[in-house]
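Friendly challenge for the regulars: who can give me the structure tokens for this chain first? No prize, just bragging rights.
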Amino acid sequence: MTETEPQTTLARYYDLDLLEDPGDLALYQALAQQSGGPILELGAGSGRLALPLAADGHAVTAVDIDPAMIARAGGAWQREPRTSRGSLELVEADMVDLDLRGRFGLVILALNTLLLLADRASQQAGLGTMARHLSPDGRAVVDVWLPTAGDLALYDGRLLLEWQRDDPQTGERVTKSASALHDAATATVTLTQLFDAWPPNGGALRRVARTDTLRLIGADELVAMASAAGLAVERLAGDHQMGDFGPGAERTVLVARLV
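First reply, four minutes later:
Bragging rights claimed.
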């Protein structure tokens, strides 16, 4: 096994994990149509959002710190039809101190990516990066999950099976299991994800794993941090359909402009 093989496999399993569509693409497509300018996605992963936005005709810059994710996005873009599409620039970099010396009409931090910045200072820096790259009339969008008390009760270190699927690239059976441990003192969750793969007719089991620390953030803190970054909240929603934010909301979707 080469040094990069586990990272490449994890990037492939990231796409397999997201076969169940989170349902947020339509939101970003609508905002992109309104933006009138280039798009920047921070923490773009394997291009789940960046590729269809570029295919829609937009100029998209996708940033991720993981070289395997960037490589997978690049390969997928090369396989896209060459007709009626925009452009995609892939940048391997850390969003915390990113400086592209450009401004964008839409800056995206989607699907809990902010939580992967595992302390308040890093999250504040990430929002600062959004503000620094936003055009004067552009919009910044941040989407984070709000776990319920029931969710947190399960985060006691127990290992739970989440799914079993077939890998279309290898034909193997793959399962995902996860173990999470919540620390109330730091508002963090240590998340370990295990992916096991084996031939469909039986055989040796292969396992790859990754561990991340997530820092949970509530709506009030997110708004305060956005303000500190120089962003004025235009809309606070509770779901990807931009429904009103309020009690029982499972997400915070923040849309902001420069102050």
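The two ends are 50 Å apart (CA to CA). The chain is about 25% helix and 35% strand. Your move, everyone else.
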